[in-house]
Amino acid sequence: MNTFSIAIHGGAGTLVKGMMTPELETRYKAALQLALDSGYHILESGGTATEAVEKAVVVLEDSPLFNAGKGSVFTATESHEMDASIMDGKTLNAGAVSLITGIKNPVSLARDVMEKSEHVFLAGDGAMQFAKELDYNLEGSSYFYDELRHNQWLEIKDTDSFQLDHAKKKDSKFGTVGAVACDKEGNIAAATSTGGMTNKKWGRVGDSPMIGAGNYANNKTCAISCTGSGEFFIRGVVAYDVACLIEHKGLSLEAAASEVIHKRILEIKGDGGLIAIDTKGNIAMPFNTEGMYRASKSSTGTEEVSIYK
After folding, report:
1. Which pLDDT belongs to residue 199?
2. Backbone angles phi, psi at 114, to 5 degrees
3. Which of 21, 144, 260, 296 counts the most CB atoms within 10 A of its CB?
């Protein structure tokens, strides 16, 4: 039987230890553990990598602690615009949604795009129409209201500023969530979900729903979910870049992921991190920021739940 494993992330950035109370750190680690265990249980029970990554991301979307689903940040118009994507490494099938509102679990809608439409990427009104045709319940704005997120928005509303998730400084933390998994059959998958940037305008879309930029999976190489400064991850086609280094230069998963995060993305002034997995169940979780909410678990017995370096 193949080694099966899963890794998840809840964002990367300037996670200042002084601003993180012991109580809050405990809450974050508990949320990561819950998502990790939920995804791992599916793999352990013989489920697919795709099922596992969707489940893990759903748990993270349901937590107000992360900038995805329930914890999504406010846009310039005091609304929420969420993005998500999922990809199956065995078939290269993928689904993505962008600029959606009122959907409790965007990652599930992305999976439905992959499995129930002829398309890969649906956005805005069209994506919402698709959700309605599938009888998705739409949550009211109160479901997504979080006082911390709202206060962050109030601080910069009516200005041209925007910020990546919940930090005092613009570059402070990026709260995208994601998961990568390898199942008992040796198939891999990746899923990513985000609420975007506080005070974002003009229907801005980051790397999270873009196949090849913020999310990618291919059994030939690896599965990747990214978190960080989305504009730079798009320019660097980061997720696919890792896969390319494995396929065309013969690098190991660890070496390829490290090359992209610690060298190539830094060269274009990008920061953040990623989680990666291959068909042997190997995991890499590099980041070039002060911290990255992350966790991993493998059938070999290794397990990790971490925030800082």
Report:
1. 72
2. -65, -40
3. 260
What's the CA gap between 67 and 193, in Å, rounded?
8
Please, which residues bridge with residue 63 across strands?
A: none
CA angle, residues 122, 261, 108, in degrees to nearest 5 = 25
Domain ranges of the chain: 5-308
Environment class of 247 (CB within 10 Å of its CB; exposed 0-12, middle 13-18, buried 19+): middle
d(CA 173, CA 170): 8
DSSP state of 140: P
d(CA 262, CA 255): 10
Where on the phi/psi map is residue 105: left (φ > 0), alpha (ψ -120 to 50), or beta? beta
Active site residue 176: yes
Quote the Cα angle for 72-74-77, to 5°. 145
Q: Is the separation of the CB atoms in 55 and 37 below 8 Å?
A: no
Marked catalytic residue, from 48, 101, 176, 279? 176
Strand partners of residue 303: 297
Q: Among 211, 176, 220, which Cα is nearest to 194's?
A: 176
Fold of the 5-308 domain: Glutamine Phosphoribosylpyrophosphate, subunit 1, domain 1 (3.60.20)
Read off the tokens for 152. Answer: 């962050």
> What pairs with residue 292 in β-bridges?
12
Cα–Cα distance measured from residue 250 to residue 224, given in angstroms and rounded to the nearest whole number: 17
Strand partners of residue 148:
none
Share of the chain residues as helix, strand and coil, in percent rounded to the nearest 5 = 35, 25, 40
List, for residues 73-131, the tens digit of each pLDDT value: 887 787 788 999 999 999 999 999 999 999 999 999 999 999 999 999 999 999 999 99
* Bridge partner list, 252: none
Q: With a threshold of 0.90, does the pTM exceed it?
A: yes
SS3 state at 111 = helix
Could you give the CA distance from residue 122 to residue 184 in angstroms, rounded to a whole number?
31
